[in-house]
Amino acid sequence: MPMLKQMYTNLGVARAIIIGFLLTLVVLAAVYDLDLAELASSSLVRTGMNGVLVLAMLPGIVSGIGPNFGLPLGVICGLLGSLLSIEFDLTGFPALVVSMLASIPLAVATGAIYGWLLNRVKGSEMMIATYVGFSVVSLMNLGWTLLPFRSPEMKWPIGRGLRVTISLAERYEKVLDKLWAFEIGGLRVPTGLLLAFAVACLAIWLFLRSKTGLAMKAVGDSKQFALASGLNVDKNRMLGTILSTVLGAIGIVVFHQSYGFIQIYEAPMWMGFTAVAAILIGGATVRKANITHVILGCFLFQSLLVISLPVANRIINVGGVAEVARIIVSNGIILYALTQVGGAD
After folding, report:
1. Residue 316 pLDDT > 80, yes or no?
2. CB-count exposure of residue 77 (10 Å: 0-12, 13-18, 19+)
3. Which of 20, 283, 286, 297 has the greatest CB tally within 10 Å of its CB?
4. Is 253 in contact with 99 (CB distance < 8 Å)?
5. pLDDT tens per residue across span 148-167
6. Is residue 322's pLDDT more than 70?
7. How far is the C-alpha of 234 from the C-alpha of 246, rounded, in Å?
């Protein structure tokens, strides 16, 4: 009992309720004879494909800018890198690697400009980040019609501009998902995808324990202490913003290789909200976060989405209920998480 009480205390009321809800859904899935192995497999895939995008929240929170609602900036850089790999007619792992490498310089430059802006609006970072993210996505709706890509896979056959959805079936679809993948008892484990997420988490974990990472964390913990210690607050905040933007660019490449399609125009608009929600339900606050919050939050968020929809379909046998359930569950989780922005859980 003391051990259970300690676990409950560590998790907090909100996360205990969410985990309890998830376990209830698992029991209902078993009662309605749903394929639990298939649901678990989907949860692992969705955790891996969204993991780096959620990880992108960590440098921003640690450096003091808070949850990065401007994640669409990094996502757009990743989309540009992916489109360049198609334009160069690359396939397989070379296409995946070039997509990431091409997006990183764009993300560094964008993150630096974005970080400069956030340093000018201290105290209003989340509001400005949301505005900037939405504005840039809207501006890029024009950009996608003007950029001089020539690949017929991306262009509309008639007129100008790029397609809304671009298939990766002949490019680098699921190259990480299939890498060293194995199946046990019906459970498919996307080893390469989970390993990529783990490597990204390890890299950030090691960075945060380096001299530079500790300085950035000190700035996020207390600006007054950082200034008294001779640390450059603006520089470290900008570094956190750049890292968050780069992770967003890499994360969307990982996401799309698993999803099998590149989606542009309005698709990046709300990605910042889902990533913020995931890390917050994992136990992070707007001032404190760590790798455990990233992993736990991503797994909880995605598992709830994966399991709730088929269970809802079985309980309510009405056409279209899956989409309604998806909206209720996903937006409900986001709404809960955003209520935590005002303070610690």
Report:
1. no
2. buried
3. 297
4. yes
5. 898 999 998 887 889 999 99
6. no
7. 18
pLDDT digits (tens, 9 = 90+) for 231-279: 899 999 999 999 999 999 999 999 999 999 999 999 998 888 889 889 9
Q: How many residues does the chain have?
A: 345
Could you give the angle at which helices 2-11 and 13-31 cross, rounded to 10 degrees? Answer: 100
Q: For residues 320 and 116, which has the higher predicted lDDT (pLDDT)? A: 116
Cβ-proximal residues to 288 (8 Å cutoff; 6+ apart), any chain = 61, 344
Question: How far is CA 126 from its chain centroid?
Answer: 17
Structure tokens of 32? Answer: 């309605």
Q: Find out whether 293 and 278 touch, Cβ atoms under 8 Å.
A: no
CA distance 156 to 146: 12
Q: 340 near 280, Cβ under 8 Å?
A: yes
Q: Helix (H, G, I), strand (E, B), or coil: what is residue 188? A: strand
Question: ∠ CA(250), CA(107), CA(230), 5° rounding?
Answer: 110
Percent of the chain with pLDDT over 90: 58
* Nearest CA among 319, 340, 337 for reference residue 329: 337
The answer to whether residues 19 and 11 touch, using CB atoms and an 8 Å cutoff, is: yes
Read off the DSSP letter of residue 147. S
**Six-digit token pair at 245?**
């933007």
CB 200 within 8 A of CB 55: yes
Tokens 């002949």 belong to: 170
Handedness of CA 85, 88, 91, 95 (dihedral sign): negative
